[in-house]
Amino acid sequence: MTIRQSILVGAAALAVLTGTGGFRACAYAHVAPRRAMSKAPHGPVAKASHNPLLPVQFPAEDFWPQLWVMQRLPAYVPKPFELLYTHADWHAYQRVYGGTVKNMYRLGPQGRTAFAQRLVLAADKMPLHSSMARLLLTRAVALTFRYRSGFPVCEQAVIQYLRRVQLSQAAQVGALWAMADAMAWQNATPPDMRINCDRLAEQADVKLTLDLVKARQLRAALTLVRLMPRHAALAIRQDPLLFGQMNMARNLVLRTRVMMHYLAGQYRAIAHGAPSAALPLYLYARFVHPMPAMRARLINWQPGGLPANLERAMDLARHDPDQLYMAARLLTAAAHDLPSGIIRDRTLYQACIDYHRYIFNRMTRRHRVKRTLARIHLQHVLAEGASPAPGIHPFHDTWLGDPFAPKIVPPLPARTMAAGSA
Question: In whole angstroms, how far apart are CA 177 and each of 83, 172, 196?
Fold first, then answer.
């Protein structure tokens, strides 16, 4: 009895105890690609968030297209995000290539590679941001990344997809991560190319994490953060720029999670009539995630409170440079009442901007005392941690280049002794 037969016999015995579901799971366990992360599309399972400031949370798997040999359903993403391709593109693909697609399991590696080459050539003739081209390229990768003979075609498809991808769309970045992840874990990929696939997967992971944090999809962002060590090879950890961006994205997700938990408590405090809880919510809606409707409600709820005073001071500072100093002082005082975190840092950064505008405004040259005080306060605000939203651009070197070209990572500069310590 072979090993496969013994596995099926054991699965049949397990089915007697657990039912047909266990037998089906065990019988098809050897068919799925090893360590493949691309799952079949399922129904829109959304998890209701207990935080009233967060939208409905979707799993990260909704942003990954299906990379099976036979794709039976089109890829989809939650409604606030744009689709990777339209349903019309899917029906057109089935109408043009349906005869070959239905017999895909009968084709061998050479037949699938030849069909994928047809898809790549057809996509090359389409416009730059064509959604149909993205469909053809993802299917070409799905048909070739498992075979060593199909890697050249798979490489062409990924390079062309990278030239067409719009980094502002989460679904397109998610498809790029799924393709790079699948190629990185296949023995068909040449060993010297796997590290490039790892780097491309990490770049897509960081970019998709930032997009999901901006859309307040913390559940999916946390999943992507947990997947970052999946491709953190030694060469990735030795790349100071990419590894630093990974750490920045991870810290941003964790800090955002703490911030939303704190704001949820403040929201419940407002429901019980606590007036001091309105300030953190107002600053969040003003400097972190702009929400004009929420700001208006907080100001109308407490017309003489600190949020209303801040709003009036900042409105006056837009037209009167002399009011910039007062607005910055009010923002600094409001930030001191907050715990350390994103809201406090963004509020201090806005105060820093107002101080800077007041100091270098021509109309305030005669106010020498206030200008000197503004310079002193500016240094204090910077020392307390004023910082803007992190500017992370993981595709700085891959956007117009070849992701499979060998990367030369400059070594870290050696530590030198200070000039005065000799």
Answer: 16, 9, 12
